[in-house]
Specification:
Blueprint lengths: L4 E3 L5 E3 L5 H9 L5 H12 L6 E5 L5 H9 L4 E5 L3 H13 L8 E3 L2 E2 L4 E7 L10 H4 L3 H11 L11 E8 L1 H8 L3 E6 L5 H6 L2 H5 L3 E8 L2 H13 L2 E7 L8 E7 L2
Parallel strand pairs: 3-4, 3-9, 4-5, 6-8, 9-10
Antiparallel strand pairs: 1-2, 7-8, 10-12, 11-12
Amino acid sequence: MERQIHLFDNGVRLFDDHLIPLQRERYRKRNVHEAEEEDIFIELIHALPPNGCFVNIGAAVGYYLILAKKLAPGLTVHAVEPLERHRRFLLENLALNGLNHSDVIIHDEGISSFEGTENFLDRGYGSRIPRAEKERKPSLSMRWKALLVLLGLRKEKNQAKTIVPIRTITLDILVDRIGRAIDLLQMDVQGLEVEVLKGGAHSLESARVQTFLIGTHSLKIHRECSAILEGHGYVIEFDEPDTKDQPDGILVARRKS
């Protein structure tokens, strides 16, 4: 049976079975992934140098990576995605859009405030490194079931309750690994935004990331991110913690020249 494909108004194609009902409902209103962020993202990509560097932390199934390459084929693009299932979907969607694995450099760690290992809560598009105490310490039963799923000895019944171990690195480590200044860093990390910025103090202070586009997941996080960035000499160019047509706030910050 031929798989259905969702074609967005900007030309991006994703396999429809990668999407969830809530997203499909949102796309009926405006057929792009995030209506309010889309225009901002396009403007930022067009402002980059032709051979610039774009980094997407929390790349999921690859929507923004594909859009960036369509808008600016010469960009060097890095994807950060710790969930193995999403990395597989990302590769499928790259091929669907005529792109190769070599067009995107994929990093399979999570970005946090320290290097090590963390429990990762698999909730599909809402996956994250949990910070609530009750989430950080899953029960022995939950950990045992997760281990059986990883070993292939148990079928995964509910993604929302799957906790898997992942490796974590800091933003500073990621920037060092990339080895060049980052022109645009976009992140959607489901509430871990402050932790990511805390792990990038050296990169922020030395302006190795020129512009941030951050999806914020609470007013408190939004304000904390603004304060951290402004403290490192960034100018807040777009500040909307309460979007109407997408599930997260939007913060754009550019380093002063």
